[in-house]
Structures are given as structure tokens and as C-alpha cells.
Amino acid sequence: MAAVSRPEDPTAEVTDLLQLLIRNQCVNDGTVASGRETRSVDLLAGFLAGVGDHDVYEPQPGRQSLVVRMEGSDPTAPTLMLMGHTDVVPVNVDGWSRDPFGADVVDGFVWGRGAVDMLNLTASQAVAFRRLADSGFRPRGTLIYLAVADEEALGRWGAEWLLQHERDAVIDDYVLTETGGFQIPSPAGPRLSVVVGEKGTYWTKIRVKGTPGHGSQPYRTDNALVTAAEVVRRIAEYRPATQIHESWRRFVEGMHYDAETTEVLLSSDDLAGALVDLPTGVARHWHACTHTTFAPTVAHGGTKTNVIPDRVDLEVDIRTLPGQTGADAAALLRDALGDLADAVEIESNDDPATSSPVDTPLWDSLARTSARLCEGSALVPSLMVGGTDNRFFRRAGAVGYGFGLFSKRLPYEDFTTMFHGNDEKVDQESLALSTRLWEAVARDLVG
Ligand SMILES: [Zn+2]
Distance from the CA of 36 to the center of ligand 1, in angstroms? Predict the structure, then answer.
């Protein structure tokens, strides 16, 4: 393809594409009939017309994913995939100050559902691809763009399906997707977090049994609700040991805190105590990065005011750390329940944590390219407490990181409250920075 000249500044182009993606309203409510990502696949395929080879996969009607492949000239060179999901979570319109699907631009911010999760990156990756192709870029290693469906409902009709059924189309050495790249201030300059791993889920149902009786005579009854209350209390008060993981250690070291703080943050004996004095948001996050967490979240039980209940069903959201097995989590839960462990029925679903190493060519490439775009910055690894499609690719053997690049106008605290929240918006400077980043990494790693 002959080189086509595009404006040096990608801001207008990436803003336009993001607005169109937001207006497509690919809302995923968890049902197979929702999402209808085909609309954004059509949009992106049109935007990338003439760039590489296109393949569209549709495991369910309307649930399309688009793969765009720029084949590398050297089969021994590494392959890199930029992956963005096209679906978004539902909104509660009452909580929004603007139309969540209007994609208004106000004071340099694009408003709308998906502005930070993650149509911003899906758009900037596509624009980077377009710009690379139009500049005549011929990669040595294969470069793949995946606009994927159904991320917001565990990837069943998206990443998981593609790896099960069309593995050759999407398998690669390196994957970049959400989330990371926020500027965290440190004494040594801004630190950009790279998500190198994601905690696992060990969602558990606990059935507490009792003996039915009349509510008018509670003396010496075996009340399942009373036992369930004790089960919930024990789980809520349980304090599993602190675990200092490689990603946590590298994060703390990279932040360049003073020696005393660093020592406390890396001490499995002292860290939990130190969290007490930190602001709640930071303390919650750091606690989750260094502990298996247990949150009782659902209780169903009882039928009538005058009936002693004989059954209560509880649900507990348990999150595991990289390296922990289902058996490890089960042992911790038994420890929490003590003598009640044998009195209840426990059923768990284990979806283990995933993580990629920090010392990789992809890390080095991100470090080089982001330092050029964000002066004085350096990378720090981080562990995500939720899940993304990256887990499927890590399990398939790829190195998967969550990254992007964000300006100082979008600090980490703002991002976390907007994620699946109200008034989601992203600044245009961040959109341009991410576009430049993807372009630079592609040239650096597979160029
Ligand atoms: Zn997302």
C-alpha cells in the first residue's frame, strides 16, 4: 500500500472513532441476545478498510469479533496483539449528568458509557493500526488487532470462544489490553502501572441447615438463620496471612518510598497493621493485592415470621492470589469457619488467578516507549483485583499486560470510580497519548 499522509496529531481521529463506538450502544447485560457488537465490528472494519487481512467471527447472532492481521515478514519474530472489547456494561441513566450514549465532548473530555472501559483503548488501538498501515509500516513480526465481543460477561462469546475455536487466529506471544498506564505520583517522578496479573475468583455457596419449628417457641431450637449469622461473622472477621508477591514487591520498590515505609510495605508481619492508617481507597486496594479476600455478599433464608428456618443459603466472594489453588482457598475457608466447617455444605467454583512475568521484551518495550511519551516516568507492575480477557491469553501461554497511557487530567482515583459507574468520561489528551503509545510499541517490538 502506498503511504497516505495523515495529520500528525491523532486527537481528532481517535475522538471521532470513540464517539461512534459509544453511540453504537453495545450494551452487554449478560444475556446472549444483548451486546450486538456487530455494529461496532462493521464500524471498525470500515475504518480499517485496506489494512491487513480481516476475519469476522460470530459464535452467536450479533456477537461478532473482528481480527485484523498485519502479517510479519519474519516468521521467527514475535507476534503482538492489541485487544480491545467493544461491549459496555448497562447504565442507570438517573445517575448521569449527560446522555450516556451521546458522546458529548465537553472541556476536552468525551462523555459516555465505555469512555474508560474500554472503548477509549479499542478506538486508540484501531487508529494506531490505521496510522501504521498508512505510513507504509511493514512489521517483522505479525501484528494483530482484536476487537472482541462479550468481555463484560466473562468472555464466553468473545475471547474464551475464540481461543477454544479459532486459536490460530488469535494466539500470539504478547497481548496488550486494559487497564493501566495511570500516572501515580512518586518521589522519583510519575509511575505508570502495568497490570501483570489478575486475582482469581473462588465463588462459594454455603448452605446452612437447621430444624424447622414454631417461631413462638424458640427455646433450644436449631435455627439455621442464627447459625448462618455466626458463619457470616466468622468469615467477616477472618484475617488470612499477608502474602508478599513478586508483583507487589516490584510495585513497592518502583514507587521509591522512604526506606522505613518500604520496609513496612514489604513485611508480611507489619503490612496489615499499617493499612489501618491509610485512606480507605488505597487501603482497600493494597489489602486486596496482598491478601486472599472473603466477602459475604448474598443471603437467602426464612419463609415466614412464625417459622424457625431450616435452611439459609449464603454466597461468598473469595478472591485468590497468583499461585493459589482451589485447595488453598478451601483450606482457608475451613480455617475461617472453624468447628462450623463440617456443619455446612460448601460448593465452590474455582477460576484461578493468572500472571505474566515482569522481565520480558514486552515490558522493556513499554518502558522505552512510555518514557518517551511521558517524561520522567517509569513502569511499576500491579495486580488487578477484577478480571479481563487477558486471563485467557495468559493461560494459553502469552505474556499479557494491561496498559494504556493517560494524562494527568485522569488520575487513578477518578478512573476507579468511573469504571462501571456514572459520568464516565475520558480526556482527549489521554486518547492521543494511548494512540501514540500503541504505534510506538508496534514499531519498537515487532517493527
Ligand atoms: Zn473492560
Answer: 16
Q: How far is the CA of 105 from the centre of ligand 1 (A)?
A: 21
Centre of ligand 1 to C-alpha 404, Å, is 12
Tell me the CA–centroid distance for residue 33 and ligand 1, in Å: 19
Helices (H), 197-279: 224-237, 246-255, 259-265, 271-275
Reported pTM: 0.91
CA of 420 to the centre of ligand 1 (A): 9
The residue written with cell numbers 468472555 in the block is 155
94 alpha-carbon distance from chain centroid: 26
How many A from CA of 176 to the centre of ligand 1?
A: 13
Cβ-based neighbour number of residue 94 at 10 Å: 6
Distance 345 CA to ligand 1 centre (A): 34
Beta bridge partners of 109: 106, 427
Model confidence pLDDT, tens digit, residues 37-74: 999 999 999 999 999 999 999 999 999 999 999 999 99
Burial class (CB in 10 A: 0-12, 13-18, 19+), 298: exposed
Which residues sit opposite 236 in a β-bridge? none
Q: How would residue 3 be classed by pLDDT, with cut points 50, 70 and 90? A: low
d(CA 84, ligand 1 centre) in Å: 8
Distances in Å between the Cα of 406 and the Cα atoms of 151, 212, 362, 428 are 22, 58, 19, 10
Chain segment 316-334, per-residue pLDDT in tens:
999 999 999 999 999 999 9
State the distance from the centre of ligand 1 to the C-alpha of 320, rounded, in angstroms.
Answer: 20
